């Protein structure tokens, strides 16, 4: 077989690629079904319930049996549920239930599929950005992106922030327990700010984000969590957020989104107390592209193409670091801004945590 050019086709390699692409097709289509299953409570209805028929799932969720039957077949084909042919019943195994139905789980996944759905809706805008080279601000995306991002990051922050990341920052944890002043910059819907406020009741917190709608949701979340007396949320950019003398400044998965990360770093330096620490949580990445060509890197490069790079290009400077900037490039920017000490304080398979000090 030949392409009509000089290079012949290897039929075995072509077959392997086509079959791999079939897997891609199934994953892409099932992303929509995961959003549906999450939105309609189908996974939650099956969690811990044992074997169920499509009629039982439909009755429990108030949905149409015929649609649920087809949905279950797709879930079974993808390995999200199991199917017993003899009884015609489907089961959500405990491992899948932990990831798909338990919002307190450290590996709760449906929020990410909300992000995927938002990206698909925004594809025309990003395609146009490819042509023009212009950016696309976070606020310009489909609104499902905001709640999806919060739901995706929340389990990771809940599992690691207070238990691992803050204790890795030298004397910072002791300061927070005694009563410290904290700024959470680029706080989004406020989850990270609220988690810290709940863990350190003697400290005060201010969360800032340029996106006004997110700040409004963060304020409501703080009231619901009972920490509104110690947490303020304000609309502000990373280069001009108010306040000074902070014992801790935190950036969660946002520095690489900024148009001028060095300018943001200089502002952090100005607002830190003399012995304060800056915690920068970023997507896990190696310094070389070839070392990031793995499943995690694939997710992050895709998200960076649709979200992070356009966000940076929509702002002043538009450095466009991308989600896979890597520790080396990040550290160079922080030191260029005036920080003398930059070290990797902690890491997970999905994040690196840098500590910067004067």
Q: Major sheet, described briefly?
A: 7 strands, mixed
**Estimated radius of gyration:** 23 Å
Q: Could you name the CATH class of the largest domain?
A: Alpha Beta
Can you tell me the overall shape?
A: globular
Distance between the termini: 63 Å
State the CATH topology of the largest domain: Rossmann fold
Q: SSE order, as H and E?
A: HHHHEEHHHHHEHEHEEHEHHEE
How much strand? 15-25%
Please report the total strand number as a whole number: 9
Helix proportion: 40-55%
Overall mean pLDDT: 96
CATH architecture of the largest domain: 3-Layer(aba) Sandwich
Structural class: alpha/beta
Task: Give a short overview.
The protein has 358 residues and is α/β, with parallel strands linked by helices. The chain has 14 helices and nine strands.
Tell me what you see in this structure.
The chain has two domains: 11-101, Orthogonal Bundle (Arc Repressor Mutant, subunit A); 112-357, Vaccinia Virus protein VP39 (Rossmann fold, 3-Layer(aba) Sandwich). The protein is an alpha/beta fold. The model has no long low-confidence stretch (mean pLDDT 96). The chain is built from 14 helices and nine strands. The N and C termini lie far apart (63 Å). Strand 1 (82-84) and strand 2 (89-91) form a beta hairpin.
List the helices and strands and how they pair.
Layout: H1 11-39, H2 42-46, H3 54-61, H4 65-77, E1 82-84, E2 89-91, H5 94-100, H6 110-121, H7 123-132, H8 144-165, H9 172-178, E3 181-185, H10 191-199, E4 204-209, H11 212-225, E5 231-235, E6 246-252, H12 261-271, E7 272-283, H13 295-313, H14 327-336, E8 341-347, E9 351-357
Parallel strand pairs: 3-4, 3-6, 4-5, 6-7
Antiparallel strand pairs: 1-2, 7-9, 8-9
Helix pairs in contact: 1-6, 3-4, 6-8, 8-10
């Amino acid at each position: 077989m030949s392409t009509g050019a000089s290079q012949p086709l290897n039929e075995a390699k072509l077959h392997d690629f086509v079959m791999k692409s079939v897997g891609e097709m199934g994953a892409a289509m099932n992303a929509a079904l995961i959003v549906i299953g999450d939105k309609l409570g189908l996974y939650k209805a099956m969690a811990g319930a044992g074997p169920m028929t499509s009629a039982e799932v439909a009755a429990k969720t108030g949905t149409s049996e015929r649609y649920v039957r087809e949905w279950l077949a797709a879930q079974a084909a993808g390995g999200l549920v199991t199917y017993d042919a003899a009884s015609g019943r489907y089961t959500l195994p405990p491992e899948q239930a932990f990831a798909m139905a338990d919002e307190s789980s450290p590996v709760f996944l449906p929020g990410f599929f909300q992000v995927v759905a938002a990206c698909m809706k925004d594809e025309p805008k990003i395609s146009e950005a490819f042509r023009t080279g212009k950016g696309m601000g976070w606020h310009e995306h489909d609104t499902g992106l905001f709640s999806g991002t919060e739901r995706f990051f929340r389990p990771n922050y809940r599992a690691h922030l207070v238990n691992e990341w803050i204790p890795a920052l030298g004397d910072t944890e002791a300061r927070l327990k005694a009563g410290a002043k904290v700024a959470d910059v680029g706080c989004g819907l406020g989850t990270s700010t609220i988690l810290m406020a709940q863990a350190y009741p003697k400290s005060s917190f201010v969360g800032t984000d340029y996106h006004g709608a997110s700040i409004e949701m963060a304020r409501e979340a703080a009231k619901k969590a009972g920490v509104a007396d110690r947490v303020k949320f304000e609309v502000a950019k990373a280069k001009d957020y108010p306040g000074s003398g902070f014992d801790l400044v935190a950036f969660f998965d946002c520095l690489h989104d900024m148009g001028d990360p060095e300018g943001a770093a200089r502002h952090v330096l100005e607002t830190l107390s003399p012995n304060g620490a800056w915690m920068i949580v970023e997507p896990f990445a190696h310094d070389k592209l070839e070392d990031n060509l793995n499943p995690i890197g694939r997710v992050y490069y895709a998200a960076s193409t649709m979200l992070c790079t356009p966000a940076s290009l929509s702002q002043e400077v538009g450095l466009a670091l991308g989600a896979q900037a890597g520790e080396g490039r990040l550290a160079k920017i922080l030191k260029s801004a005036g920080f003398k000490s930059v070290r990797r304080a902690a890491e997970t398979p999905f994040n690196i945590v840098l500590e910067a000090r004067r």
